[in-house]
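U., I forgot to send this yesterday:
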Amino acid sequence: MAEAERGGLTYRSAGVDVEAAERLVSRIARLAEATRNPGVVGSLGGFAGLYRLGPFVQGRLLVASTDGVGTKSAVAVEVGRYDSIGLDLVAMCVDDLVCCGAEPHFLLDYLVFEHLDEAVAEAVIAGVAEGCRLAGVALLGGETAEHPGLMPSGLFDLAGFAVGSVAEEALWGSWRIEVGDVLVGLSSPGLRSNGYSLARRALLVEARRSLKEEAWEGAGRSLGEELLCPSVIYAPSLLRLRDEGLNIKVAAHITGGGIPGNLVRVLPAGLDAVVDRGTWSVPRIFHEVKVAGRIAELEMERTFNMGVGMLVVVSAEHAPRALELLGPSAWRAGWVEPGEGRVRMVGSWRWGDV
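Result:
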């Protein structure tokens, strides 16, 4: 008699439902198909996704990036809303790629549950597919896994990686930066996917706030909805600057570590970047986090993006055209001057709607 017939252990009784995973693959195949682009070979479901480099081979570099959404996923679970966190994943991956001028081609995701919830998984991956559509990349494949006992019941983790390419002679980098270059900021209306461990501790533990209550008086949305504000995907806008022939030097994706911790990564040894805090208004949610946790401004600055999702270094000559193309979400945030490869923050924060 088989072990299962004697009441012995099965993979399902151990917490992993293979049949549910197979059903999910068949449902998400159509989501991936909607992101298909000319480089995709075959269809979803094999052991690996295939992508034809074709014209990208000669003189081009492959570029890859990986990231996740962190503990923002815990907010999604508590609120019971899963439709936008997939966009966060795409933004975290492709907006790293574009910092060197690379065009992203495809993305793969990794979604892990303590116990698979098919409806939640489909909603999350639908968000990933929508993010891929907005970014112009193919959702080439991925993995959905169950890890019983590895995390608290009901939670999930979402990560992924993206691959793109760039012509070697068109590569953006620190060696292009010169004295007098302009820093163009691109606004982030929310926290993106960074600093949520601190934000959740401040708001939900220290201040004992509820995700169901209004984010702040007159906000018109709950705190949970505010914290789930989807990340802007900047890659298409930066690639448009490239396609217009503007003299873009490099870009810095402002994620964990804030402006000082990320902008310094693209600076050459002999130049400083000066960022004027007074050139933009910091979104209200950052003030709510600061007050709730009694967090010092310096700690806020090195943890959160403070309303800046991307900083683009562009020649002074081409800065006006870049601002015109990027629209009202962009502004002159600073400049480049002789120095020692440091980021200098000057001026005072302007807190919005406080």
